[in-house]
Amino acid sequence: HLEPELGDLIEIFRDNYEHWAVYVGAGFVVHFVNHSGVSSGASVHAANGTVRKEKIWDVVGKDDWKINNSMDRQYKPRPANVIVEDAKAMVGKELRYDLVEYNCEHFVKELRCGVAESLQVAALRVMGGAGVIALAVRGCLASRNGPSSF
How much is the pLDDT for 35? Predict the structure, then answer.
């Protein structure tokens, strides 16, 4: 793997979805997680989430990952120092988590490019609603090792 640079987006491949984080330096990422312990699709859809700063390897665990700044082809990325400052300023904040409207992928892409977009959701819309609910049960959960403090 290449070493991530400040402001890089990290795509982590879970069993049946992707989790996203933004690299903020010194081995840390900032990411948006929905509150785990939620089991039904309907409640995940409206669940609150928290922005966390954690060590990259605590978030990635044993899963595959890659740097994915593919959105840069469509939108000009913001300066790396601005991405990192804004990401760090969000740590600890509670935001409304919505699988379709605002999930972990929307969060990091908005930080990097100023546009909240989720290709996962776009792909699921093609599959139909059942796919969205299936993903909702698992979407953007906390790190593999469980919640940790900042």
Answer: 75
Catalytic residue list contains 104:
yes
Using only C-alpha atoms, the chain has a radius of gyration, in whole angstroms, of 14
In the chain, which residues have pLDDT < 50?
37-44, 130-150
Residue 142 tokens, joined: 């906390």
pTM: 0.77
Whole-number pLDDT of residue 2 = 79
The domain spans of the chain are 9-138
Do the Cβ atoms of 12 and 66 come closer than 8 Å? no
pLDDT, tens digit (0-9, with 9 covering 90-100), for 68-109: 999 999 999 999 999 999 999 999 998 888 877 888 999 999
Can 140 be counted among the known catalytic residues?
Answer: no
| Coil/strand/helix, residue 23 | strand
Please pick, among 31, 106, 113, 140, the residue that the annotation labels catalytic.
31
The closest of 18, 37, 41 to 129, measured between CA atoms, is 41
CATH number of 9-138: 3.90.1720.10
31 is an active site residue: yes
Cβ–Cβ under 8 Å, residues 12 and 4: no
Catalytic residue among 19, 45, 106, 113: 19
